[in-house]
């Protein structure tokens, strides 16, 4: 695996001098991956489950946790007493890093770091997610998206530092040494360059989607919260063949959609041909959703989700083995992510039903009927319900038209016959002496192309 130090260098992020102002997790080389997780909530009980799983996904060993319920402290996020507790816990557990599941501002990060033992890193939820994405980004597009997100994370911080340094005439503020305003300009320039490149990749992908539709394929996308079981379901529904012509894919990459009991296993998109009765379906698996992401991070990864937004049908996968409140929260996050840009009908899939008894399933259906009307229950692990899901996909896809064509028996007509076989579902093919009758069903666009191709044939054959 490429160390994040390498990757950092390739982003061209501003140099921070040898004194090491960079307090972010250093990846390989720093050695210490023991982390304490912490979270503050305004009310109720803070839950450390997700941040722990995220930290583990990034390769940390979580050795302690700490929560606090109180309003945000402007300087320290937590109360100062809690920060002292945090320091003691870090010492006791010999942790090298503190992961905070809150939107920690740059000054708060700096202040908390100042109270911790020397060399202990402070990172927040977003930096952690970026770190995971950075470790797993394996296509040019994914790398660009990570770089974009990193730069967008950096920008307000650079702005703040520049203006503070100017106002206070403290060029050494936060140990940055000589801070140059040009850093800010540099970040903005890089952001715009990356955006341009991402846009041109997105245009190519859009062209490819159109080409696939023209060839008679319906495009179905898997969406859902991270770890819902999208990639596992992909394997149930699709042939092993990977149809992504990913020119820039890293050579040593496995070309299958990987599944692991870990958050954000899948980052890039994988497209495979699904095995359906009638329809030719291309199924795309992609990055999972997660709650509480700032808009800049979501936007940086937006083009990853284009295959979802522009699909003909979306399968929204939900882990139904979780308690109803969690399912509800994750459904809401998923709908929020889809809401603004999605154009396709959505079928909700309750996955992991092998872990439920029938009574529980019925209760969950009832409790969530508002958010998930008429879900299909499956187990991507055992394959239960997958046949029903296939039927449902075919039912929900845009209607096909029926057509019946009578063609002359000629070479040109025969190549049209084979074109129709490739692009449509042929119900009947009968040969009489000098003509062939073809009855088929296909997308409206395919039917009209077949008609016009047939119309071109007739004059030649009638001579
Ligand atoms: N018991 C059970 N486990 C499942 C089922 N489907 C998936 N899993 C497990 O759930 C975990 C996550 O599955 P993935 O397919 O990687 O989930 P994903 O939605 O692709 O996750 P990301 O790529 O991280 O967004 C893995 O450990 C799977 O083995 C299921 O039907 N039953
Ligand atoms: Mg996956």
TrEMBL record:
Domain of life: Archaea
Chain segments annotated as coiled-coil in the UniProt record: 141-214
Pfam families: GTP-bdg_M (PF16360), GTP-bdg_N (PF13167), HflX_C (PF19275), MMR_HSR1 (PF01926)
Alphabetic keyword roster: Coiled coil, Cytoplasm, GTP-binding, Magnesium, Metal-binding, Nucleotide-binding
GO annotations of cellular component type: cytoplasm
UniProt feature, compositional bias: Basic and acidic residues: 13-35
Disordered, as annotated region: 1-35
Subcellular location: Cytoplasm
Keyword Cytoplasm in record: yes
Family, similarity comment: Belongs to the TRAFAC class OBG-HflX-like GTPase superfamily. HflX GTPase family.
Name by which UniProt lists this protein: GTPase HflX
Source organism: Halorubrum aquaticum
This protein's encoding gene: hflX
């Amino acid at each position: 695996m490429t160390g994040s130090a390498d990757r950092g260098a390739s982003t061209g992020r501003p140099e921070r001098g040898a004194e090491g102002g960079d307090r972010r997790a250093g990846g390989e080389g720093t050695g210490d991956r023991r982390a304490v997780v912490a979270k503050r909530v305004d009310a109720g009980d803070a839950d450390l489950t997700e941040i722990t799983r995220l930290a583990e996904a990034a390769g940390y060993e979580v050795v302690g946790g700490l929560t606090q319920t109180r309003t945000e402290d402007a300087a320290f996020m937590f109360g100062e007493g809690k920060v002292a507790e945090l320091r003691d816990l870090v010492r006791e557990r010999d942790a090298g890093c503190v992961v905070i599941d809150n939107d920690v501002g740059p000054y708060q990060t700096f202040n908390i770091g100042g109270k911790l033992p020397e060399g202990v890193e402070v990172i927040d939820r977003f930096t952690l997610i970026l770190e995971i994405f950075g470790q797993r980004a394996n296509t040019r597009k994914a790398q660009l998206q990570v770089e974009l997100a990193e730069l967008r994370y950096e920008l307000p911080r650079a702005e703040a530092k520049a203006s503070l340094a100017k106002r206070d005439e403290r060029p050494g503020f936060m140990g940055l040494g000589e801070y140059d305003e040009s850093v800010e300009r540099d970040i903005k320039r890089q952001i715009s360059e990356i955006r341009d490149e991402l846009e041109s990749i997105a245009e190519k992908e859009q062209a490819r989607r159109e080409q696939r539709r023209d060839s008679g394929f319906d495009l179905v996308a898997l969406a859902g919260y991270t770890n819902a079981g999208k990639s596992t379901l992909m394997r149930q529904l699709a042939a092993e063949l990977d149809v992504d012509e990913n020119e820039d894919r890293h050579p040593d990459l496995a070309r299958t959609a990987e599944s692991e009991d870990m958050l954000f296993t899948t980052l890039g998109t994988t497209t495979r041909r699904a095995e359906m009765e009638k329809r030719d379906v291309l199924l795309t698996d992609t990055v999972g959703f997660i709650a509480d992401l700032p808009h800049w991070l979501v936007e940086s990864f937006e083009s990853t989700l284009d295959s979802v937004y522009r699909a003909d049908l979306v399968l929204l996968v939900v882990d139904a083995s979780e308690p109803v409140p969690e399912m509800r929260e994750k459904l809401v996050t998923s709908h929020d992510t889809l809401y603004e840009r999605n154009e396709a009908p959505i079928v909700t899939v309750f996955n992991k039903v092998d872990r439920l008894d029938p009574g529980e399933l019925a209760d969950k259906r009832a409790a969530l009927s508002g958010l998930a009307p008429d879900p299909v229950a499956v187990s991507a692990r055992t394959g239960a319900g997958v046949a029903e899901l296939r039927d449902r996909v075919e039912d929900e896809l845009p209607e096909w038209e029926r057509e019946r064509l009578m063609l002359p028996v000629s070479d040109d007509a025969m190549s049209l016959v084979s074109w129709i076989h490739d692009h449509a579902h042929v119900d009947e093919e009968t040969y009489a002496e000098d003509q062939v009758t073809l009855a088929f069903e296909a997308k409206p666009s395919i039917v009209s192309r077949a008609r016009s191709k047939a119309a071109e044939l007739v004059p030649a054959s009638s001579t």
